[in-house]
Amino acid sequence: MDDLAGRSVSGSAGDGLLVAVDSRIHRLPAQVKIVALFVFVLAVVSTPAGVFWAFALYAALLAGAVALAKLPVTTVLRRLAVETPFIVFALVLPFVATGPQVDVLGVSVSESGVLGSWNVLAKGTLGVIAAIVLSASTAPRELLSGLERLRLPSTLVAILSFMVRYLSVVSDDLHRMRIARESRGYAGGRVGHLKAVAGGVGALFVRSFERGERVHLAMQSRGYTGRMPQLAASGAARNQWAEGLVISLLAVLIAVAARVAGL
């Protein structure tokens, strides 16, 4: 515990992906934003892929959310890189899917594959942007508090809490090990160097495991009984729920209209 003295989940232990600005979305309770994200994503994934106007409206809603959260567009675009595997899959899908073929720019591709590719790209991108808004407007500790208020099992909340708290500690260990390797002439880039990397990963695992044992014993000596102190002090007011769910409820209306139009 000594190596964590003075640290906090929302402080030097890292603010995660939080963009520290003051906005209406930042001020909303975390549990409201989590429910809003879940409802929005549920509306998006339930929308038929062929109803293109619905996805344009979803994109407009998300653009409004990004503007309300005062998030830099460059930050949102940079974090969209996490979607790269889905983009690669979507680009390959028209060439491997079966069914009727259609010519696109002189190339024969599967018609169902093109629609499936659009489905993956559109819904995946909208979902990722919505998650970016949540992560950029909510500190890790607030997210944990929100999950606790939503009655997530206390054991899972405790695991996530420790993960957030010790992520920077393990990262610092990894950084020091990299400096130690380089100070001894390690350059990397060769197959023979994999042994050094594997040894470092193993040492990091053992060190983290032993730290966890020491922390657990220290917590038990201070009266830990298996349940963490409650993180959330108060719930959300009705007006906060109403304000936070506006975009998601509009998305639900769009989804309903899209399904009716697709019948």
Automatic annotation (TrEMBL):
<feature type="transmembrane region" description="Helical">
    <location>
        <begin position="241"/>
        <end position="261"/>
    </location>
</feature>
<dbReference type="InterPro" id="IPR012809">
    <property type="entry name" value="ECF_CbiQ"/>
</dbReference>
<keyword id="KW-1133">Transmembrane helix</keyword>
<dbReference type="InterPro" id="IPR051611">
    <property type="entry name" value="ECF_transporter_component"/>
</dbReference>
<protein>
    <submittedName>
        <fullName>Cobalt ECF transporter T component CbiQ</fullName>
    </submittedName>
</protein>
<dbReference type="InterPro" id="IPR003339">
    <property type="entry name" value="ABC/ECF_trnsptr_transmembrane"/>
</dbReference>
<feature type="transmembrane region" description="Helical">
    <location>
        <begin position="80"/>
        <end position="97"/>
    </location>
</feature>
<feature type="transmembrane region" description="Helical">
    <location>
        <begin position="28"/>
        <end position="45"/>
    </location>
</feature>
<feature type="transmembrane region" description="Helical">
    <location>
        <begin position="117"/>
        <end position="138"/>
    </location>
</feature>
<keyword id="KW-0812">Transmembrane</keyword>
<keyword id="KW-1003">Cell membrane</keyword>
<feature type="transmembrane region" description="Helical">
    <location>
        <begin position="150"/>
        <end position="168"/>
    </location>
</feature>
<keyword id="KW-0472">Membrane</keyword>
<dbReference type="Pfam" id="PF02361">
    <property type="entry name" value="CbiQ"/>
</dbReference>
